[in-house]
Design a protein that fits this description.
single chain, 144 residues, 41% helix, 7% strand, globular
Length: 144
Amino acid sequence: VPIAPYQTPGSQAVADSLTPWIKDSEVFLLRNHGSVTAGIGLLDAYFKTEIIDSYCRLLILSASLGQPRRLTGAQLAELDALKENFSAESPAPPNSPVSSETTGPSASPPESPVGGSPGPLSSLSPEAIEAISAAVVRRLREQP
């Protein structure tokens, strides 16, 4: 995950600091700020935020137990193979947890998370998901 250098909050320099990585990544860490994610829709970006947040928490916890140990190439390949067995075929971009079919205004919510029972979004209509998303964005904009 690229880490952009510190820039003054709210400045064009913050956006400009992502330029070297924007073609290759949809998840960024802004030094002394936090994370920024992009996606094929709000839900896709949200899932990526959840993933990077969980990953960072794991790194913090593992650092408290000693130096985190990186997986070998063979171990990573084995995990990738497992991931393919649990992933549904979709036209989503590489490493994207949400397909384009689940992000449009007339899209149906995801039927179930990977390897689990139907998630909380499965019973919501696309209109309800869109209304909730709009309310969340409004609340975020209202915060100082």
